[in-house]
Design brief:
Helices cover 35% and strands 23% of the residues. With 506 residues, the chain is α/β, with parallel strands linked by helices. It folds into 2 domains: 10-257 and 466-484, 3-Layer(aba) Sandwich (Aldehyde Dehydrogenase, Chain A, domain 1); 261-454, 3-Layer(aba) Sandwich (Aldehyde Dehydrogenase, Chain A, domain 2). Helix 2 (69-85) packs antiparallel against helix 4 (102-122) and helix 2 (69-85) crosses helix 6 (186-199). The longest helix is centred in the N-terminal third of the chain and has 21 residues, at 102-122. Bound molecules: 2-aminohexanedioic acid.
Length: 506
């Protein structure tokens, strides 16, 4: 498609109670690599649509939770086959509307597939424990039960894998769901639901509502018949959702929010590996992973070499249309992201940083219609009160912060209100153990970037990065309730804790 062309190829619909529904109003879905291109129109859902979807999910819940867990799991097996069939189509949609380069978009589809495979395998795993009682004639069981209706509110930067991190465990455990994809990536969300329908998920178990966070997202978080809200996105929105959810007595949230993740380069680090780790962590996905590194915390003895190599390599990275061969990353998602990143780049200068590389807005002929911004790298000595080395930017903006000893590196690392992902580059097993234990994070890495987690691990952070309810494999804990169940096999009653059963006949 040539730049400047305006088309409306795709008309999205909502899926409620087993029916595709048109919406009264629509929103445009634009290509971030060429904002003149309208990829399609999709529904601007309302609070009433959200309520209808919650009612459908509630209605479907009793039959779904009574369905055999193995049968529920088998639907995920079918879904896996459909994702494999459509992997190229899904990757293309994802790349087009999120701006993620197509090779990475494919990796994300594969990550979603891995989650589906994990969920399918988990169907045959125990749903609880059998534990001993003080009384020989009693059996004690711990059993997970579904919570009910789960609202799944997901971001544009991982619009296929993150929904599956949440939809998978929720549905497997017997919950029903209302899924609200980001308004930046409605089409891939719709394609995922289409595949789920084709796989055979019954009407009402999966409902899809599109629209704006402040309209549909808020309505779901507020709705009294939603039991769990699963959210991934910014700290500001996550904290707003948690407050809305707290107004009802029973509702819980699993929130994965912002970060100021870091790669720590120790004095014994292999320089080539450290530079690779920093480049991937800071600039892959144009710095728009929630785990992207905004900081490289580097031992002073390596500083000059590290900075020179890092900038040299960063200059050669290609930020281009997602379908360009050899591209390393694509555009930012929208104009407000561009404004935010450029504002933080300027703020680094105001905070007296030494700017090492400022690629700025990339607006040559091939990129002037897209939201392209290149790497910004600066050296900043750690000091109290500096904003750029503490706040999340969500773009290709990297501070190099020198340190002199490991204790200081840990203090620098922990000096932000976030705690999501941390990588340490070292050859010394005593050293990485120290960082492992002293840094605040949800995902830790040694001799790797701080991005690239696998689905069978818990994914979530501490401080402002999360509320202690990680997703991916660990989401099962958030969407189930652990119940105890005690069965007496004796003819009379013997109480635990040595309590006498006074009411009984002697
Ligand atoms: C996100 O950063 O928003 O760990 C999700 C990773 C990916 C998921 C990232 N598996 O980088």
């Amino acid at each position: 498609m040539t730049q400047g062309t305006k088309t409306s190829q795709w008309i999205g619909r909502q899926f409620i109670n087993g029916d595709w529904r048109e919406a009264a109003a629509t929103l445009e879905n634009r290509n971030p690599a060429n904002f003149a291109e309208v990829l399609g129109l999709f529904p601007r859902g309302t609070a009433a649509d959200a309520a209808a979807a919650v009612a459908a999910a509630r209605k479907a819940f009793p039959a779904w939770r009574r369905t055999s867990r193995i049968k529920r799991g088998e639907l995920f097996d079918r879904l896996a086959a459909l994702i494999r069939r459509d992997v190229d189509k899904l990757a293309a949609t994802l790349a087009r509307e999120s701006g993620k380069i197509v090779d990475e978009a494919r990796a994300e589809v594969v990550e979603g597939l891995h989650m589906v495979q994990y969920v399918c395998g988990t169907a045959r795993q125990p749903i609880g424990d059998c534990v001993a009682s003080e009384i020989a004639g009693k059996d004690l069981y711990v059993r997970r039960k579904p919570r009910g209706v789960v609202a799944v509110i997901t971001p544009w930067n991982f619009p296929f894998a993150v929904p599956l991190w949440m939809l998978g465990p929720s549905l497997l455990e017997g919950n029903t769901v209302v899924f609200k994809p980001s308004d930046e990536t409605p089409e891939i969300g719709t394609q995922l639901v289409e595949l789920m329908i084709e796989a055979g998920f019954p009407a009402g178990t999966v409902n899809l509502v599109h629209g704006l966070g402040e309209e549909v997202g808020d309505a779901l978080a507020r709705h009294d018949d939603v039991d769990v809200v699963c959210f991934t996105g910014s700290y500001e929105v996550g904290s707003h959702i948690r407050k809305l959810a707290a107004a009802s007595d029973h509702k819980t949230c699993a929130c994965e929010m912002g970060s100021k993740s870091a790669v720590i380069v120790c004095e014994d680090a292999r320089l080539d590996l450290a530079v690779d780790a920093a480049l991937l962590s800071a600039f892959k996905t144009t710095g728009q992973r929630c785990v992207s590194a905004g900081r490289a915390i580097v031992h002073r003895s390596l500083l000059a070499k590290f900075e020179a190599e890092l900038c040299e390599r960063a200059k050669s990275l290609v930020f281009a249309d997602p379908f360009t061969k050899g591209a390393f990353a694509g555009p930012l998602i929208n104009q407000s992201s561009v404004d935010k990143v450029l504002r933080y780049n300027a703020l680094a200068r105001e905070e007296m940083a030494k700017v090492l590389l400022d690629s700025g807005r990339l607006d040559d002929d091939s990129r002037k219609h897209g939201y392209f911004v290149g790497p910004f790298i600066y050296r900043q000595e750690h000091a109290p009160g500096l904003r750029t080395i503490r706040e999340e930017v969500f773009g290709p903006h990297l501070a190099v912060i020198p340190f002199d000893d490991d204790e200081q590196a840990v203090r620098i690392y922990n000096d932000t209100r976030y705690g999501l992902s941390m990588a340490v580059v070292t050859e010394d097993y005593r050293r990485w153990r120290f960082y492992r234990d002293e840094c605040d994070y949800g995902m830790g890495y040694v001799n790797l970037p701080c991005i690239g987690a696998e689905v069978h691990l818990p994914f979530g952070g501490v401080k402002r990065s999360g509320n202690g309810q990680p997703s991916a494999a660990a989401l099962i804990d958030s969407v189930t309730h652990k119940t105890s169940f005690t069965v007496n096999h004796e003819l009379g009653i013997t109480m635990a804790q040595g309590m006498t059963a006074g009411a009984q006949k002697q």
